[in-house]
Amino acid sequence: MTAKKAEAKVKQKFELPRRVSPLQDAVFHVPSKTDKTDKLCVKYINAVKGRGVFTKAKISKGQFVAEYRGDIINDSEYQCRRRVDHPSCAAFMFAFRWRGETWCIDASREDESFGRLVNDEGRRPNCKMK
């Protein structure tokens, strides 16, 4: 092996993997409905909080973490479900404004996805919805 090849091999071993853009990452994971099991895991916290998502590897600021999967519903359906469903279901409803209207992603139905279990910290969130 030449010195150049040996140097390249050592450099390759210690270089960080090329960063995938958040958009590319989302384009891969969202259509395939897959979670980043190489970087995330679900753990039981306690009887009050239930389960949560924890990292197994560093996730850079701005990087895609998980898809928040659920039914996309309009404001009237959102209000109806909040009245009818068990209060604990409200924790899995993410309301947002888009084009001047209120919409909601209702992730209250268990589907084994990580997104519905991410970031239950209201005062100091460590990631945000995009």
Automatic annotation (TrEMBL):
Record GO cellular component, one term: nucleus
Pfam family, one: SET
InterPro entries, alphabetized: KMT5A, SET_dom, SET_dom_sf
Domain (SET): residue spans on this chain: 38-130
GO terms classed as biological process: regulation of DNA damage response, signal transduction by p53 class mediator; regulation of transcription by RNA polymerase II
PROSITE patterns in the cross-refs: SET
SUPFAM superfamilies cross-referenced by the UniProt entry: SET domain (SSF82199)
Recorded GO MF terms: histone H4K20 methyltransferase activity
Official protein name in the record: SET domain-containing protein
